[in-house]
């Protein structure tokens, strides 16, 4: 008999830390060193406050646009913390916390959203591709990186992130199918924040879970409480180890929530309820992780207050610096950075645009 339905409800969402910060899965607590846990927490606090400030800067007309990450800190940092320096991220655009954790500076993230392409330059050795707005493409790019790593035997794993809406795009399937068939070292992390702008996840897919799409690729999969920093770390670490051993890709669904707007041009009050937002506010990933640290004796309220003051100063100073650079991008650079050498068509477009701008003066 052909099974008509896969019953996702039988797969419990993987969780270690519940929404009150209580360890509910003692055996699986990775017992990470204090420094690692504090780095995770401090990154989340910096990320959350940077998001809040960036929204304000944009409203003040000081920043071009911005896509906030509020609510997705654990899903991003748990994943990043499980990666080694040689591993690649093929990212989307909602990636602030993973970027910060792996060594991208806040200055360069702000530069990018300010409208200065220099924000796409990564420090040496930070293997995160530039912010990628093209939904779905993250998968094929990661499959390419993973296949190259396999052929060159470099011990690198390529991790790609995609939104819930992104899983409705063809490239999501193409890249995963390719990597699964060739057992390329890849990990796929779906950031299921419940919404693709105003489209709810139930309209983007008829599957009971996004994780279960792994069945079709013939790869292991798991739905994780994406607001649980520890569960995200453990699931990603296991997937990274599998990939590195040559066992191929894993599909992780981080079940989380976008607490803020899609971007600064969106108003979520038009399409979702206050009740829904309030329900998810109780599942805040940072609050529960803080409780975990307080209970462990690794952190105090005094230290917390000081941290928030410090990050606000850091954010303000950083943004002032970014403003002092200005957009500072010559027109030519937009054309120059697409190919190593401009194609004839691109040259033509450049000339045309230059003339247009001169005429506009
Ligand atoms: C190929 C492509 N089609 C359409 C868009 C326009 N677009 C930007 S964000 C977005 C929604 C994405 O939702 P989701 O994948 O759930 O990610 P989230 O923004 O929620 O993190 C769309 C359709 C795009 N950037 N790329
Ligand atoms: Mg989404």
Automatic annotation (TrEMBL):
UniProt-listed SUPFAM superfamilies: Thiamin diphosphate-binding fold (THDP-binding)
Alphabetical keyword list: Oxidoreductase, Pyruvate, Thiamine pyrophosphate
Catalytic activity: N(6)-[(R)-lipoyl]-L-lysyl-[protein] + pyruvate + H(+) = N(6)-[(R)-S(8)-acetyldihydrolipoyl]-L-lysyl-[protein] + CO2
Segment forming the signal sequence: none
GO molecular function, one term: pyruvate dehydrogenase (acetyl-transferring) activity
GO BP, sorted A to Z: branched-chain amino acid catabolic process
EC identifiers of the protein: 1.2.4.1
Pfam family, one: E1_dh
All copies of domain Dehydrogenase E1 component, residue ranges: 41-326
Cofactors, names only: thiamine diphosphate
Role, per record: The pyruvate dehydrogenase complex catalyzes the overall conversion of pyruvate to acetyl-CoA and CO(2). It contains multiple copies of three enzymatic components: pyruvate dehydrogenase (E1), dihydrolipoamide acetyltransferase (E2) and lipoamide dehydrogenase (E3).
SUBUNIT field: Heterodimer of an alpha and a beta chain.
Entry protein name: Pyruvate dehydrogenase E1 component subunit alpha
């Amino acid at each position: 008999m052909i099974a008509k339905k896969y019953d996702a409800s039988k797969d419990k969402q993987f969780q270690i830390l519940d929404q009150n910060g209580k360890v509910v899965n003692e055996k699986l607590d990775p017992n990470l060193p204090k420094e690692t846990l504090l780095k995770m927490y401090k990154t989340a606090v910096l990320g959350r406050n940077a998001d809040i400030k960036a929204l304000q800067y944009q409203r003040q007309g000081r920043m071009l646009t911005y896509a906030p990450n509020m609510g997705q800190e654990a899903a991003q940092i748990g994943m990043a913390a499980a990666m080694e320096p040689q591993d690649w991220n093929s990212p989307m655009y909602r990636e602030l916390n993973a970027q910060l954790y792996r060594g991208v500076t806040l200055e360069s993230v702000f530069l990018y959203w300010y409208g200065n392409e220099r924000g796409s330059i990564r420090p040496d050795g930070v293997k995160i591709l530039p912010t990628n707005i093209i939904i779905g493409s993250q998968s094929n790019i990661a499959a390419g990186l993973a296949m190259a790593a396999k052929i060159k035997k470099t011990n690198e794993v390529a991790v790609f992130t995609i939104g819930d809406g992104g899983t409705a795009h063809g490239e999501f399937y193409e890249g995963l199918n390719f990597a699964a068939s060739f057992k390329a070292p890849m990990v796929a992390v779906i950031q299921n924040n419940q919404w693709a702008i105003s489209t709810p996840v139930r309209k983007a897919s008829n599957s009971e879970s996004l994780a279960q799409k792994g069945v079709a690729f013939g790869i292991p999969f798991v739905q994780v409480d994406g607001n649980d920093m520890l569960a995200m770390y453990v699931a990603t670490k296991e997937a990274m180890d599998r990939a590195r051993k040559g066992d191929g890709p894993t599909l992780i669904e981080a079940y989380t929530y976008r607490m803020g707007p899609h971007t600064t041009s969106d108003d979520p009050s038009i399409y979702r309820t206050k009740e829904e937002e309030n329900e998810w506010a109780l599942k805040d990933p940072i609050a529960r992780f803080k409780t975990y640290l307080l209970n462990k004796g690794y952190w105090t309220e005094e230290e917390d207050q000081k941290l928030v003051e410090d990050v606000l100063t850091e954010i303000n100073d950083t943004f002032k610096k970014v403003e002092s650079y200005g957009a500072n991008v010559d027109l030519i650079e937009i054309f120059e950075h697409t190919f190593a050498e401009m194609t004839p068509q691109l040259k033509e477009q450049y000339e045309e645009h230059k003339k247009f701008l001169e005429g506009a003066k």
